[in-house]
Amino acid sequence: MNFKLKDIGPQLITVIAVVLIFGFFTYNAQVNMENRGIDFGYGFLSQEASFDVQFSLIEYDGSHSYFRAYLVGLLNTILVSVIGIIIATILGIVVGIARLSSNYLINKFAAFYVEFFRNIPLLLQLFFWYFAALRTLPLPQDAESFFGVFYLTIKGLYVPAFVWENFNVFFYSIIAAFVSIIFVRTYAKKVQENLGKQTPVLLISIGLLIILPLLSFLIGGVDLSFEIPKLKQLATTSFVYDGGLSLPPELIALTLALSLYTATFIAECVRAGVQGVGKGQKEAAASIGLTPNQVLKLVVMPQALRIIIPPTTNQYLNLTKNSSLAAAIAYPDIVLVFAGTALMQTGKAIEIVSITMFTYLSLSISISILMNWYNKKIAIQEK
Amino acid sequence: MSKINFLKPDKSNLYTFLYFGSFLVFFSILDVFLNSFFNINMTVFLPYTLSFILPLFLGFIGLHFLRIEYSGIKRLDIFNKNINTNNFNAILSLLIIFIIIKSTPPAMSWLIIDADFAGNSKDVCTGSGACWTYIKVWIRRFMYGMYPNGEQWRINLSFIALALLGSVGYFATDKFKKYLTLYYVVIYPFIAFLFIFFFISGGPVFFDFSYGIIAAIISIIIGFFIPNKFKFYYFLIVPFSIYILLKYFIFYEELIELGKLEGLNWVETGAWGGLSLTFIISFFCLIFCFPIGMAFALGRRSGFPLIRYISIGFIEFWRGVPLITVLFMSAVMFPMFLPEDFFIDKLIRAIIAISLFEAAYVAEVIRGGLQALPRGQYEAAKSLGMGYWKMHIFVILPQALKLVIPGIANTFLALVKDTPLIFVVGLLELVGMLNLAKTNPEWLGFAMEGYVFAAIIFWIICYAMSKYSYNLEQKYKTDR
User: Fold this and answer.
1) CATH second-level architecture of B136-147+267-479?
2) Hey, are the CB atoms on B451 and A115 less than 8 Å from each other?
3) DSSP per-residue letters across B85-111
4) Using CB atoms and an 8 Å cut-off, which of residues 322-351 of chain B contact chain A?
5) Each residue's pLDDT tens digit, B413-435
6) Which of B337, B427, B443, B462 best probes binding to A when mutated, by most A CB atoms within 10 angstroms?
7) Is B323 helix (H, G, I), strand (E, B) or coil?
8) What pTM, to 2 d.p., does this model score?
9) In angstroms, rounded to a whole number, what is the distance separating the alpha carbons of residues A183 and B187?
10) For A244-261, how does the pLDDT look when each residue is reduced to its tens digit (9 = 90+)?
11) Model ipTM value
C-alpha cells in the first residue's frame, strides 16, 4: 500500500468536516421545512406569478409564470450591465488616457475624478443620484427638450423610438458585414505574410459596415422611422409622455452610478497598461522607422492590451455583480424581482436564493473561463 | 523688429506675442470670472451664443500666441510644457479652467454662503443653500444609530480605548517588537471583543464568555503535557469540547451565579447603527476574514487534491456572487439551516456573511503573495528540515504577507465601502440612517445634504486608507 496516514489524514478530516457541516445544514433545513409545512422543489417556477413589474424588456404581466418573472429580472440585469459596461469603458479609456497626459490640468482633473468617485461607496452614489440629483429634474409638463426629441423629466428620460420595417433583413446585413470583415482581415493578414503588402483593413471595414446596411435599405425593403414622445394630459395636473421609449429614473440612476464608479477602476487599468509597456519598446519601434501611429498600433497597443484586458474584465464582472444594488432603489433586476418579490410570495427561500446565486455564479464563471482562454491565446509565447 | 507671422509665433517678436497673448488669456478668464462670480457680462452687446463662445475663442488665440518654443523665459516654458503643448491641449486646459471658475460660485453658495447652520428646527432652513441644521440635529443618529443618547459614552470610550491600544505598535520598543504580531493577531482582537460585549452591548453576555475563558485556560494548561506531534489536533478539538461540556453538563448552576455580575444596560444590536456600526463591522470582518482567507489560500496551494478542490470551490463560489445575495442568504436562507431553537443575532449573521465573502478575496490576494515568492525560499526551508507548518509560519507567510499588505488594504477598503449593504438584513449604518432620516415627515426634502455629508465622511476615510496603502506599497517596494 502506498497510502500513508500522513497523506490521508488531513484530507479525511477536511472532507469529514465539510460533509458534517453540510449534513447538519441539510438535516436542519429538512426539519425546519417539515415543521413549517414547506416542501422543497422548483415546481413553483411554472405557477402564475400574479405580480407586476414596472419595467420589462419582454412581454410580462401578472398572469405569466415565475420563470417568466425570473427572465424579466435577468434581462433587466443584463440590460443595465451592458449599458453600464459600454459607458464605463468609454469613460474609463478617456480618463485613463487623460491621466497619462502631459497637460498638468487635464492630468489633475482626471486624477481628481478617479480619487473622488472611487472612494465613495457605490450605494451612497446610487442613492445620491436617485434620491437627490434626479429628484431635482422638472415635471413632464415643464421639461425642456433636447433637440426637440429628448425629454429629461423626473419620471425618466424619453427618447424617440425606432420603428423598423423588415428589421431582420437589416440585422442580417449587419451580421453579413461582420462576417465579411473577418474574411477581409484574414485575407489581408495572409497577403501581408506572403507578399509584405499592407491592405487598408480599417477603411474597408468601415466601408463594409456602411455599405451593406445601406444596401438593405435600398434593396431589402428596410424602412426606419422615428416615433417622437409627445406630452399627454392624463388629469389636470398629471402629464406623461406618450410614444417613444421611456427609460425609468431607476435605470438612469443605476447606469450613472455604476458607470461613473467602474470607470475610475477601468481608468486605472488603462493607465497601468500603457505605463506597463517599456519605454525601450517605443524607442525600438521608432528606431526601425515606424511612424508614431504605427508605433501605437503595432507595438504599444498589443502589449498594453495584454495588461489591460484581464483586470478590465474583472471590473466588468464587478459591475455586473454590483448591478444587484438595484434592489435598493427598486429597479426591477433579478434580485428585486426574484429574490425580493417572488421570495416574499412563495416563501421558498432556499430555492430562490440558490437560483439567484447560481445565475450570478454561472455568469461570472463563464466570463472567467472565456478570459482564461483569451489570456492563454494572447500570452507571449516564450520559446 | 522683424516681420510678424501671427500663425507661427516665434522668438523674434517675443514680447509682442507675450503681451498680446497674456492679455487675451487674461481677458477671457476675467470675462468668465466676472460672469460667474458677479453676474456681469462684459460682452453683453454681442449675440448670446457669440458672447458665450467668445472667452474660449479669445483664450485659444491667446494661448496660441503664447506658445513660443524655447522662449528663454523659464516660467513661460514651464507653462507651455505643462498646459499648452498644442492646440488641442490648449482648448482642454481652457475648458477645465472655465469649468472650475463656473462651478465654484454655485457650489460655494450652496455649501457655505447661503447655507443655514444655526437653530435646531427645520424652520431656520429658508435659504437657497444647504440646510446643515438638519445634519446638526440628526448627528447623533448618524453616528450612533438608535443607540440611547445617555449610553453613547460607552461607544466613544470603547473606540478611543481601542484606537489607543491599536496604536501600541508605533510606540513599541525593539524589545517588544517581536511580540507585536501575537498582540495584534490574538490579544488585541480579544480585547476588542471584551469591549464590544461588555461595553457596547452590555447585559448578561458574560455567561458564555466565562465558559469560553475557562475552557481556554483548562485546555492550555493540559496542552503543555501533550506531545508536540498531536498538539495541532489537540487544539483543534479539545477546547471546543471542554466548552460544550462546561456549558451543558458540568457546573451549570455555579457558573450562572458566577456570570450574574451586574453589567451595564443591555442595548440590543438592532439599535446599533450609524457610522460606529460601520467601524464595528469593518473591524470584526477584517479580523475574521484574514485567518479564514489565509487558510483557504494555503488550501488552494496545498498538495492534497481534496483540500485544494474544496478551497477552489469555496473561493470561486464567494467571488462569483454579489454581496447583496450573500446577505440575502444570511437573512432568509441561513436561519433555515440552523436548529429551530437556535437563534443567531442578525449583526453576527451579517458579520459572518461579510467575513466569508471578503475571505475569498483575501485568499486570492494572499495566494498572489505566495506565488510571488521564489521557489528557493520553500526549498531552503525544507532543506533545513522544517515541516509544512514550521516552513509556512516562520519562512513563507512572513514574507508573503509583507508582499500583499497593499492588496489586503485594498480589500479592506472594498469592505468598508460594502458595509452600507447591510441594510438588506435590516441594520442601518450611516447610509441606512440617512435614508431613515430622509423619510421623517418633519425633515422631508434634505436628501442632498445627508448624502453630501455621508459622502464627505466616507471619502475622507477611504481616501486616507488608500493613501496609506499606497505609502505602504512604496515602503515595501524599496525593501525588496
Assistant:
1) Orthogonal Bundle (1.10)
2) no
3) SSHHHHHHHHHHHHHHHHHHHHHHIII
4) 322-325, 328-329, 332-333, 335-340
5) 889 998 888 888 888 888 888 88
6) B337
7) helix
8) 0.84
9) 67
10) 677 888 888 999 999 999
11) 0.83
